[in-house]
Amino acid sequence: THFGYQQVPVGEKAARVRQVFDSVASRYDLMNDLMSLGIHRLWKRHAIELAGVRRGQQVLDLASGTGDLADRFAGIVGPDGLVVMSDINAAMLGEGRERMLDRGRVGNVQYSLINAEKIPFGDDRFDCVTISFGLRNVTDKQAALDEMFRVLRPGGKALIVEFSHPLTKPLSKAYDLYSFSVLPTLGKLIVNDSSSYRYLAESIRMHPDQETLRSMMETSGFERCEYFNHTGGIVAIHRGYKL
Ligand code: SAM
Fold it and tell me: HAMAP family this protein is in (predicted)?
């Protein structure tokens, strides 16, 4: 157990993902800032804007990690709203909860160990469901999208922030160089673990591109699906509605 949370049983890819995040949990925020040169903060800010969440609403944040989005949402929904902060990994969720308590977020945040592929909530429940830099780690992405759709109330929306595919060849080349040599080296220096960051680079390359993810959302039933490219397509924010 970690921080009193029991790990959930998972398959092989998931076990690898767990190992990666177990190994980086405590220095996760620092790595995020270094790896993205701080730009992840802008990506997340835009996601919050696009979510359009209001006071009193209920938000489910999947793969919350250390809870950057959950923290912002908790401020927006206020004391009458609710944010469920969740992650499949007990170490990450434990770090996240500590972080939220440090920020003074109490009262409207619930913590839950959740596999995005099988969300333990009933249908039509949340105003907004988000997953930021989490979907690419999920083994069955279509199942996760189906589940996100299911737990949304009609009129609710889903937001997916994820690394995507660079829009131009030169950027793509530079990005590969960065991901496959700079990143693992940073990983080695900072958390003494280059293989975790090599895994991350590979998972980014394998992740469906912008249009593919959009059509996967449509397959799950989402409507008015659109995406916003950031930093030349290195990151894309997808949004879809349950109508
Ligand atoms: N959302 C945070 C952010 O934007 O900084 C954290 C993202 S972190 C890169 C990815 C998280 O996804 C990890 O904490 C990992 O444990 C979690 N994760 C991996 N597979 C998952 C799954 N199947 N369901 C839910 N979370 C998962």
Answer: MenG_UbiE_methyltr (MF_01813)
Structure tokens at 236: 């894309």
Q: What's the whole-model pTM score? A: 0.90
Please give the annotated binding residues for S-adenosyl-L-methionine, written as ranges: 66, 87, 115-116, 132
Q: What is the pLDDT of residues 144-177, one digit of tens each?
A: 999 999 999 999 999 999 999 999 999 999 998 9
Does the CB atom of residue 68 touch ligand 1 within 6 A? yes
Pocket test for ligand 1, best of 18, 21, 183, 207 (most atoms within 8 A of CB): 21
In this structure, are residues 72 and 48 in contact, taking their beta carbons and an 8 Å threshold?
yes
Residues 118, 122, 124, 130, Cα dihedral to 10°? -40
Asked whether residue 126 carries a pLDDT value surpassing 90, the answer given is: yes
Instruction: Report which protein residue has its CA nearest ligand 1's atom 17.
Output: 63
Tokens at 149, concatenated:
């759709």
Listed by start position, the domains of the chain span 38-165+208-241
Residues 53-69: tens digit of each pLDDT: 999 999 999 999 989 99
ipTM: 0.99
CATH superfamily, region 38-165+208-241: Vaccinia Virus protein VP39 (3.40.50.150)
Q: Is 106 left (phi over 0), alpha (psi -120 to 50) or beta?
A: beta
